[in-house]
Write a structure and sequence with these properties.
Elements lengths: L2 H13 L3 E7 L9 E6 L2 H12 L3 E6 L16 E12 L4 E18 L5 E6 L8 H20 L6 H8 L3 H11 L4 H9 L3 H53 L7 H12 L4 H15 L6 H15 L12 H11 L4 H16 L7 E5 L6 H12 L3 E5 L6 H5 L12 H9 L5 E5 L12 H9 L7 E2 L6 E2 L5 E6 L7 H5 L1 E5 L5 H19 L7 E3 L1 H11 L6 H19 L6 E3 L1 H8 L8 H4 L5 E6 L6 E11 L4 E4 L4 H16 L1 H4 L5 H4 E6 L13 H13 L7 E3 L2 E2 L5 E2 L4 H10 L4 E5 L11 H6 L1 E5 L2 H9 L21
Parallel strand pairs: 1-3, 7-12, 7-13, 8-9, 9-12, 14-15, 16-20, 18-19, 20-23, 23-24
Antiparallel strand pairs: 1-6, 2-5, 3-4, 4-5, 5-6, 10-11, 16-17, 17-19, 21-22
Helix pairs in contact: 3-4, 3-5, 3-7, 5-7, 8-9, 9-10, 11-12, 11-13, 18-19, 18-20, 19-21, 23-26, 26-29
Bound molecules: adenosine-5'-diphosphate.
């Protein structure tokens, strides 16, 4: 500020009269040195301003305390105001503008009169000055904040910042800044009333910070809004331009080609009315969307699904039983029982197409022909074939789909299968129904029940489609490895057809008639080029596979064909004959080479038979003994029931030690270890009881078990042998492994009826009811004491 001006101001301050009229204002506060226009409408006040202009031009501007209280006359004003000089007076349509320059803060001591306007006795107020580092620092930050606010605010000219830098006194600086900002009136009044300049600056900094925050927030919001508008406006303009360009070029297509093509597909596609309505609506929605938006893709995919599904497309059935029989025979060796049942099923369908029979369920180990039977059925009646696996499906949504609101949602497996089938009446195979899981995500089996129920499945609703699909024409077939885990309500709807697995001879036949010809042609070879010797095939079956089904056998045959195909491609000519020797050349060392006789030649090892979901297997039980203290160690992933069987076997032997000629104190000085090797397959169930006892007895008597003998059965503490389950599978497994004799519970003898005659002839069966008999057959042991007579209260056990 110029030196002279300051002087003039000071003079005016000193010249202030004691009594001045008051101009009450609603929401402005005027600060010393600041020039401010005030709108005056009140007639009396205008008169007062006129009079003031005639005289010394001085008055006091004071803010009305409560701006709402308009009826209060005269209005009550704050006790601190500003004395000012009227500089100018301009009349406008809305009122008169009075321009006032502040001179000094004043306190209104007393209102002397109120009519026609207020006149008061006043005293001028002086600032309480401060200097020093702190004040300087405060001023610097005030400038900084002020600059930021000015920068952010579009209404404030940037020159203000420079102007403020010219004010080098803290008090006036605060006054200047506060009066330029559009702050709340009470804040301004607060600053006006603060005479201590340090306090005033402090308060100002606080207000500035608040203001800055507000500004920033406002700016953020504005930017967001602006961005939104910009983008959609841009797109709108671009689209309009595109239209104009297209028109100009004569491509007067309103719709993009993609929409066009969907529209054409929709017109051609046969759809139920309800579906068509939904599709058309969706297409309309789609045509209004920007192809860039994620929404567009979702909607587009949904339309694709609707268009790809065979809502009304069916294939024509050709149910000719003779033909069907031919087809089944063409692909499958033997299996007469199953084939006949299938033919009956088809016959019923032919005679009464409306009749919804039970659903066929093929149960059996892998590779026994379940899938290929399904395929053959489809071929026989001229339907499409699809297959989905339910193994590990735990979530209802996998069957029924996810709602479209999820990112990446898809229809469930049923609808996916139908899309693949391209007809609404395929043979639809649901694999591994026994492996359906259930957890918190909902029960997939209940969704499956709905799918399979003819009363409900004409209106199957998928969460993704949100449209009803008619599944009633679909021919469902299910498969499972095991019957037990299938949920009971599902099982009730199904007719079970069992496929137990094949004997070695059957495998040989199937390999010769089906697998080898197929593999030869699949590898691009001619039938005349390749021949497998019988002995070679037997070697593959015995030493390279160990399964109830045919999967690995087919794979090994395939591997040999592949090797031959390569040789042919490399130029080798002539006929390839696969002998036993060649097998090893092509397939490497045998995978299952152990010689059973050799393995069981040591005392302490017995062969058991186990039932597994893949068909049944043989199981070696090994017992050994070492110096120690009476403990029984069990290893090989044994379940609790199996562990208990081992304990029971040990107790039996201890109680009969004398009769069997075993050292009665054997357990006192030794630790006994029973191990059931072969794999990480958890083993459980009581049916290894007989085997464990035999292995222990063999160990303790130092006699080895008869070679090629296997056994199964549960034992009680008293040595009674109880029946067990899965005999059929176990016997088949035994025959595959080259077992010649089997000890089994007497009560299981009836199960042998189901075993193919050929095997029954190959294997010698020993039905037993007591452990003594087992030990006699297996180890040639004779109980010294007369046998206790078999007890009559034998309890019959169900499956183990
Ligand atoms: P699964 O579905 O039970 O696991 P697959 O149907 O896949 O078994 O059968 C495995 C292979 O064995 C297929 O190539 C199949 O054609 C063949 N196969 C199974 N059973 C027979 C049979 N009885 N006659 C001929 N080939 C068979």
């Amino acid at each position: 500020m110029e030196h002279e001006e300051v002087k003039e101001m000071e003079e005016k301050e000193q010249k202030l009269p004691e009594v001045l009229p008051i101009l009450p204002v609603r929401d402005s506060v005027i600060f010393p040195r600041m020039v401010i226009p005030l709108m005056v409408r009140d007639k009396e006040h205008l008169k007062m301003v006129d009079q003031v202009l005639q005289a010394d031009r001085l008055l006091v501007v004071a803010m009305i305390k409560d701006p709402e209280a308009t009826d209060k006359q005269p209005p009550e004003v704050h006790r601190v105001g500003t004395a000012g000089v009227v500089l100018k007076l301009t009349k406008t349509e809305e009122g008169t503008i009075v321009v006032v320059q502040g001179v000094s803060r004043v306190r209104i001591e007393e209102i002397l009169s109120t009519e026609p306007y207020q006149v008061a006795r006043i005293t001028p107020l002086q600032d309480v000055e401060h200097t020093g580092k702190e004040i300087e620092a405060m001023m610097t930050s005030t400038w900084g904040l002020f600059k930021e606010i000015v920068d952010l605010s579009p209404h404030l000219p940037s020159e203000l910042v420079q102007l403020s830098r010219n004010v080098d006194q803290p008090g006036p600086l605060a006054d200047m800044i506060i009066s330029t900002l559009n702050m709340e009136r009470n804040k301004k009044q607060e600053i006006l009333e603060l005479l201590d300049v340090k306090e005033r600056l402090k308060k100002l900094i606080l207000f500035l910070n608040e203001e800055l925050e507000l500004q920033k927030m406002g700016k953020r919001i504005q930017e967001q809004v602006k961005k939104g508008i910009d983008k959609s406006q841009r797109e709108y303009y671009l689209r309009e331009q595109l239209k104009a360009i297209q028109k100009e070029l004569g491509i007067d297509k309103e719709e993009p080609p993609e929409i066009q093509s969907i529209k054409e597909r929709l017109e051609k596609k046969a759809l139920p009315d309800a579906v068509r309505q939904v599709a058309e609506k969706e297409l309309e929605r789609l045509s209004k969307m920007s192809p860039m938006s994620p929404e567009y893709t979702v909607s587009r995919t949904y339309l694709d699904w609707i268009l790809d599904l065979p809502w009304l497309e069916s294939t024509e059935d050709t149910i000719d039983i003779q033909h069907a029989k031919k087809v089944l025979d063409k692909h499958h060796y033997n299996l007469e029982k199953v084939k006949n049942r299938i033919l009956e099923y088809l016959a019923v369908r032919k005679l009464n197409p409306e009749h919804k029979g039970p659903i066929l369920c093929f149960v059996g180990p892998p590779g026994t022909g379940k899938t290929s039977l399904g395929r053959a059925i489809a071929e026989a009646i001229g339907r499409k074939f699809v297959r989905i696996s339910l193994g590990g499906v735990r979530d209802e949504a996998e069957i029924r789909g996810h709602r479209r609101t999820y990112v990446g949602a898809l229809p469930g497996r049923i609808i996916q299968g139908l899309k693949k089938a391209k007809s609404n009446n395929p043979v639809f195979m649901l694999d591994e129904v026994d492996k359906l899981g259930m957890d918190f995500r909902g029960d997939p089996s209940s969704a499956l029940l709905e799918v399979l129920d003819p009363e409900q499945n004409y209106s199957f609703s998928d969460h993704y489609l949100e449209l009803e699909f008619d599944l009633s024409k679909v021919m469902f077939i299910t498969t499972a490895n095991q019957l037990d885990p299938i949920p009971a309500p599902l099982r009730d709807r199904m007719e079970i057809l069992e496929l137990v697995g094949y004997t070695e001879d059957e495998k040989l036949q199937i390999a010769t008639k089906f697998l080898i010809p197929r593999q030869i042609s699949e590898h691009g070879l001619k039938r005349s080029q390749v021949a497998f010797r019988k002995a070679a095939l037997r070697k593959i079956i015995r030493e390279y596979t160990r399964e109830a089904g045919l999967r690995n056998l087919e794979r090994e045959i395939g591997a040999i064909c592949r090797a031959i195909a390569r040789e042919v491609a490399e130029g080798k000519k002539g006929r390839f004959v696969v002998t036993e020797k060649e097998v090893e050349q092509y397939l490497g060392k045998p995978k299952y080479t152990y010689d059973m006789a050799e393995r069981t030649s040591v005392p302490g090892i017995a062969v058991g038979l186990a039932w597994t979901p893949t068909g049944g297997d043989i199981l070696f039980v090994e017992a050994t003994m070492m110096p120690g203290e009476k403990s029984l160690v069990l290893t090989g992933q044994l379940g609790d029931v199996m562990k208990e069987s081992a304990q029971a076997a040990l107790s039996y032997l201890r109680s009969r030690a004398h009769e069997l000629g075993i050292d009665p104190d054997f357990y006192k000085k030794n630790d006994i270890h029973i191990h059931v090797p072969a794999g990480a397959i958890p083993k459980d169930g009581p049916s290894a009881g007989v085997t464990m006892l035999t292995a222990l007895a063999s160990l303790l008597t130092r006699k080895s078990v008869k070679p090629r003998l296997a056994m199964t059965g549960e034992v009680t503490l008293r040595g009674i042998v109880l029946p067990v389950g899965g005999i059929k599978e176990k016997v088949l497994a035994a025959s595959r492994s080259g077992i010649k004799e089997i000890i089994l519970p007497k009560d299981n003898q009836k199960d042998l009826d189901e075993i193919p005659e050929k095997i029954r002839k190959q294997i010698k069966f020993h039905p037993v009811s007591r452990m003594e008999e087992v030990l006699e057959i297996a180890l040639g042991l004779n109980h010294k004491k007369a046998r206790t007579k078999p007890s009559s209260n034998k309890k019959k056990r169900s499956k183990s």
